[in-house]
Every structure is written in structure tokens, then in C-alpha cells.
Amino acid sequence: MAAAPTAPAAAGTSDVSTSRSPWASSLPDDLVRLVASRLLVGDLLDYVRFRAVCRPWRSGTASPGGRGVVEPRFHPRRWMMFPEGNGLYPGHPNLHGYVRFFNLDTGAFVRAHIPLFDDHCVLDSYEGLLVLQRDHDTAICLLNPLTGDILDLPPLSTLLPQMRQQFTKGFRAQKRLSLLRCLSTAATFTDGVVTVMLAIERFFCVAVATSQDQQWTVSTWYYAIGRPLLSAQGKTYVVHETSVEKTLEIFQMDTPLPNEGLQEPKLIATYRLRGPVCFVECDSEVLVIGHDSVAFECRLLVYKLAYHVVERNKGLLNRWWKYGGDHLRWPVKQWKLRQGVSLHCLLLC
């Protein structure tokens, strides 16, 4: 494999070109900004490369440096940290501080130098941002791996005094912290203030803090969960399988805005599906995937969650369309989607 390009440590801060290109510098400023905005919608790295062409293009467009976390437009949404395998975890001495990232749309690789892994561990990711925990003080951090921007949040250890009743006597603090690290992250970004909500999967509760807080606040309620979580667009979705009629209930937990309190999970959709059930985010759409029965010849069903939320509000939740409506269905053994929907899109988006 050819050597992967290296992502800049702080995108937009280095002066790559020293001479002006005549045709580039002659472009109108409004056209430069238009092209840059189109590139930013697609991929942050393309935007960074565009700004590196010449000084006029950099001066006429916003720099991601210093804004890579607080402004969602600079989030590397379609980039995923690539597992090296063979025991080469992030921060392994043989990697020399470098980590590779994989673009889910183009298949491209970039190599970023992230020395933070010497004393941080990865807990989760959200919209391409890495959720890290610092070793010595358990502080939670959000890191944009392509710009190098980092945002500090309160230490995870501030949850321990608030969750004494959840722990069995005799648990040491280090053991208790390890139980809190199994989490799912959602966040909102409003006027430079970042609010993060952690769904702590082992204890069925959530904790919330902003970039201006000194400690996390634990919810006074608990959520029911029977399936993996999904966090997208500032919301966390959970699935609960009821004991009556074997229906699946989808609950939504919203990340509060600054100066707002946590709201209890709300039921947004109900499905007659058999497990295993999972969520998939595809082009900003949340899909619910399950089976229509437990038989060997069962069919795989794919639902658009947004469609059912709208129909539920209209009182029309039980409306079914065969194709092109609220769901698609096809034999599991066939592994082929109809109506032009690709399996690649379903499984990888």
C-alpha cells in the first residue's frame, strides 16, 4: 500500500504556498467563498487542501484552526479511526504518535500525528470527533483529529459521588471508573458553548456537562435499553423490547441546550420487529434494521425512523407501504436491496 498522506496537525495554520498563482489570485472573492463552502459540505480535508493553494484563498475563507470542535461545519464526519491490528493500539510506541483515518465515502487514508495518545485513551466518537479520557485526572476531551483542536470537559471522576447507590460495596475507585467508560456520546454546539451528554450503558443513566462546567450532572431517571445505542444530531436513540406482544419501542434522549435541564426519554416510534435490531445513520437519515420473524426464511426490514415519528404524530403509525415508503423488505439469504438502495450504503454509512 502506498504511504498515506499526513493530515496537518492544525489545519489552516501553516503557510503551504509562498508564491501566488496568477489565475488563482484573480478569482473573485465571492466565487472563492462559494467553492470553499461547497467543499466544506463534502469533506473537511478537501476544504483544507483548497485553502492551501495560495494566500488569497486562505485569507478569503474561514480557518478551521481553533474552531474544529466548537463549529460543527469543521467536524470530520465521514472519517473513522482505522484499526491497525496486531496489538497496535493508538499510542503504541511502534506507531510513533501517528494514527490512520479512513474516509467512509472515498476510501482514502490519511495519517495524523496525535501525541495525545501517550496519556489519553479513546472512549467514543461523535461526528468524527474523538471522545478521550485523560489518564492522570480522568478529564473528558473532544478532539478533532484533522485540525488538532481539543476541548476539555469535566473529569469523569466527578460522577462517582453522585452514583454511590449504583456501585456495590467494595468496588475500588479505579474499578468504578472503568464501569463508567462504556458510554455513547451526543452533543450540541450553540454560540461557542458545547454541551455533551454521555449515555452510561452499564447503569442506564445519562450525564451532561458543558465546556463551562466543573463537573458532570447525572440524570435523576433511568432509561430502558435492550439494544445498542445510536447518537446522531444531538440525540441518542435507544431500543426497548416490551414483554407484551414483543414490540420494539424507540426512545429518544435529547442533549439539552445551555441553561436547560435534562428531559426524560420520549417514545417516538413502535415497531413489530424481531432482533437483532440495530440503528444505521445514512445521509443524515436514521434507519432501524430488524427482522420480520425468527424463522430461518425471515426477511430483513429497514425503516426510516423520521417517517414513523411523523406518522406517529399524525396517529397513523400502523400505515405500511411495500416499497419506497416507510420500509423495505427482502430475504436475508438474498442479501440484495431493491429500488436502487445498495447494501454498501446500508452497512457502512
TrEMBL record:
Residues of the region (Disordered) are: 1-25
- Where does the record place the KIB1-4 beta-propeller domain? 101-307
Bias type Low complexity, positions: 1-11
**Superkingdom as given in the UniProt entry:** Eukaryota
Compositional bias (Polar residues): 14-24
State the InterPro entries in the record.
F-box-like_dom_sf (IPR036047), KIB1-4_b-propeller (IPR005174)
Give the protein name, as stated in the record: KIB1-4 beta-propeller domain-containing protein
